[in-house]
Amino acid sequence: MDRKSRFPIRKFERLEAMKDEEYQYWQGRPAWERIAAVSEITTEAYRLRDPAINVSRLQRTLVAVQRP
User: Fold this and answer.
1) DSSP per residue over 3-19, as a string?
2) DSSP code string of 28-63
3) Average pLDDT of adjacent 10-residue blocks, the chain of 68 residues
4) Which has the closest alpha carbon to 55: 64, 66, 47?
5) What gap in Å lies between CA 49 and CA 58, rounded to an integer?
6) What are phi and psi of 12, to 5 degrees?
7) Which of 40, 35, 13 is nearest to 21 (CA)?
8) Nearest to residue 37, comparing CAs of 23, 26, 48, 49?
């Protein structure tokens, strides 16, 4: 498989069109994959803030919800 077929380039006339396609892509992914992506982005954001920190996972429960 050559590089061009592995990394297709699409041009958009408007930012909204690009965002619409991105939204459709993520809606088509399973929930576990979307959650994993959010976790990865969050970890990278913490690393950008402080490169010395080792954030491999959440260390504690952030919010406890009481169900009625």
Assistant:
1) HHHHS-----SSHHHHH
2) TS-HHHHHHHHHHHHHHHHHHH-TT---SS--S-S-
3) 79 94 94 91 84 64 73
4) 47
5) 16
6) -120, 145
7) 13
8) 26
Question: For residue 19, which amino acid is it?
Answer: K
Residue 27 is inside which H or E element, if any? helix 15-27
Q: How far is CA 52 from CA 48, 49, 64, in A?
A: 9, 9, 29
How far apart are the C-alpha atoms of 49 and 1, rounded to whole Å? Answer: 38
* pLDDT at residue 55, as a whole number: 60
